[in-house]
Amino acid sequence: MNRKSKISRTNIIGYRRRSSSKEEEEVAAAKSRSTLEILPCAIVIDILSRLPLKNIFHCRCVSKTWLNLLLSPDFARTHLMRSPSSLLLQWSKHRRKGGQSLFSLDLKATNVLHRSARLKFDFLLTKRRYNLSDSCNGLVCLCDSVSHNPVCILNPLTGDYITLPQSQRRFEVDIPFCGMGFCPKTNQYKLIRFVCRHTPPSPLSWEVEIFTLGTASWRSTGCTPKSVPTSGYYRISNGSLNWLDFRLNSSECIWSFDFSNETVRSFPPPPQFGPHHEDVLYWMRLGVLDDCLCICDSPSGSYFDIWVMKEYGVQESWTKQFVIDAPVLDGPWNDYLPIKLLNDGEILMLQNGETLVSYSFGEKSVKKVKIRGIPSNIDAVSYLPSFVSFKDIAMGENLKVLNVKSSCADSAL
């Protein structure tokens, strides 16, 4: 047998082996698909909802059956229950220049700095500049960067959004703030904002306006709170929007708006807080750690305490859980917001509202968190990724759902 014949025979054998291997892989994949397809839909949904977000998107391409399951309301609800706590980030410079990129950072990942812990969302809303305002169950409220009025509610995972109507009432003063929450009793999503009318010689009178998804307009709740939040200094916890009021005395510095009954109330800070705290209220920050409301308190220039409210609304449940040395944090009077306790004995915080830093309790040192692909100067809101569809959570003729990639997206916003 000549040399060419040997080479030809070798190529044929190699081709048959590769073909056989490929066929075996296809058969194995087909068996795997058929095994899942004979399982009850509820079990398949339960399995798929446990996958990382990137894998879920890949699974949409497996078959029409899987695609329909992954687009179903049942899958959205199941996935939301185990969705990883995340942080939604926007580069501050992009915001000012009209950039349209958002980043999601998985805070439950083994390594939050690894590329697998982040997602990037690019939008085609090039004619509008926006600020991140608030987020609830995967839905994000975007506000106009100039007027601070709420513009739309967006689901970054799906790209769907709805535009928000303007208030029909005129006010002399409004707060550049919009909070978003969910009422489990009625399964409704709500937005609130604080406005006031000033008719001299009467004093300022604050009102709470609310917008329910699926309705046509904003409405007044009838609440006239003594305190109003300021942009960036409020947190959602236990179905309520909570904020600190720096102008009041320390006995009533924490206020709350309940999204279910649409009422405002105040509750006290830790009982250990005394009259001296009235002088440092401005340096306090309200946060949420492990689903509990917390206060970052700076009673002196050398350290600050993190108090955690173990039982919501109960003053006696406040516990001083952490003490952090301030000098290592670039000075005593910087603004630090606790975000998440990490698995390696560190705590993730937001410094001065724009820089992610990590503090090590063991080493008593701080370092800037540098994430590849995400700039250092950022805006951030808590985020729970979800596949919730507007059509499943808000009904009515007034609901018009658009997509950021649609041809009418620019004109709608």
Automatic annotation (TrEMBL):
SUPFAM superfamilies found in the cross-reference section: F-box domain (SSF81383)
Superkingdom field: Eukaryota
First and last residue of the signal peptide: none
Domain (F-box) ranges: 39-79
InterPro entries (UniProt xref): F-box-assoc_dom_typ1 (IPR006527), F-box-assoc_interact_dom (IPR017451), F-box-like_dom_sf (IPR036047), F-box_dom (IPR001810), SCF_F-box_component (IPR050796)
Record-linked NCBIfam families: F_box_assoc_1
Stated name of the protein: F-box domain-containing protein
Protein's organism: Liquidambar formosana (Formosan gum)
